[in-house]
């Protein structure tokens, strides 16, 4: 009862759309988080290039291999400090929302970004002023989502304005829309001090805004050199059985997106999850 998803670019030897479809089928997965720019850097994935034919091509190609695009990735710095750069980023996201249905995707996904252009760490991200700015940005995107009937999937992370369960709840409370979805990646919200409480953190997220959670990112980790470092599922410390049982309790068949799990490790992860 788990709807497993992989990121297309985690199949590392893929160079063509047909090959991506074939390799995804080979590893036994039926859902993709599709980032065109990551999977096919040579392909123009800009706002001006997107069109219904492009979306329909990918939708039909993947369907032949019993695969759907679960999430369309448009990961960008949504709060870029340069007004012109931000406008281009938001326009691209809105364009992805416009054409998502042609790809067969129910949502377009992104993290929130940073007040530093290169997404570097700064405590400036944690201010109420930056959060208020973020709310305005997400409100704009959600309005487009409402128009095109596509979810806006927003992912929290420690270094971003959306850095905690509490801050995410504030965003949910500030934006009253059925088209705001939250992508929960618990590994993005832990430190070397609190990683042992990850399962409780997941429970808390579902208790606070479970109705808004539209996908889970499942990313294993180790503690190395005083840092949380991602690793393939099953090779680290994450209590994925406990987390998946929580997801099953609150959101049966919710999309479970593997991260940092590539190639042969995808097959292994699929087998591990099937045993739960």
UniProtKB/TrEMBL annotation:
Annotated Xylose isomerase-like TIM barrel domain ranges read 56-264
Would the keyword tRNA-binding be found if you checked this record's keyword annotation?
Answer: no
Q: Which domain of life is it from?
A: Bacteria
Q: Name one GO molecular function term.
A: isomerase activity
Which keywords does the record carry?
Isomerase
Supply the InterPro entries for this chain.
Answer: IolE/XylAMocC-like, Xyl_isomerase-like_sf, Xyl_isomerase-like_TIM-brl
| Pfam families linked to this entry | AP_endonuc_2 (PF01261)
**What is the official name of this protein in its record?**
Sugar phosphate isomerase/epimerase family protein
Q: Species name for this entry?
A: Enterococcus lemanii
């Amino acid at each position: 009862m788990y709807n497993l998803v992989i990121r297309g670019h985690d199949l590392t030897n893929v160079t063509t759309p047909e090959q991506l479809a074939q390799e995804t089928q080979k590893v036994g997965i039926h859902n993709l988080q599709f980032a065109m720019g990551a999977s096919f850097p040579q392909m123009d994935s800009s706002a001006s290039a997107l069109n219904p034919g492009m979306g329909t091509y990918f939708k039909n190609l993947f369907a032949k291999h019993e695969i759907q695009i679960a999430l369309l990735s448009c990961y960008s710095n949504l709060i870029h400090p340069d007004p012109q750069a931000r406008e281009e980023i938001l326009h691209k996201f809105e364009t992805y929302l416009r054409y998502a249905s042609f790809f067969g995707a129910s949502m377009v996904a992104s993290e929130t970004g940073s007040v530093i252009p290169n997404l570097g760490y700064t405590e400036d991200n944690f201010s109420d002023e930056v959060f208020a700015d973020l709310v305005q940005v997400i409100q704009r995107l959600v309005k487009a989502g409402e128009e095109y009937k596509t979810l806006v999937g927003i992912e929290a992370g420690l270094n971003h304005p959306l850095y905690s369960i509490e801050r995410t709840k504030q965003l949910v409370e500030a934006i009253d829309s059925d088209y705001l979805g939250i992508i929960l990646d618990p590994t993005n919200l832990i430190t070397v001090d609190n990683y042992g409480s990850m399962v409780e953190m997941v429970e808390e997220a579902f208790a606070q805004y479970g109705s808004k959670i539209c996908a889970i990112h499942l990313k294993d980790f180790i503690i190395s050199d005083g840092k949380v470092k991602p690793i393939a599922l099953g090779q680290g410390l994450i209590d994925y059985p406990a987390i998946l049982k929580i997801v099953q309790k609150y959101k049966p068949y919710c999309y479970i997106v593997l991260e940092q799990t590539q190639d042969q490790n995808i097959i292994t992860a699929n087998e591990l999850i099937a045993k739960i």
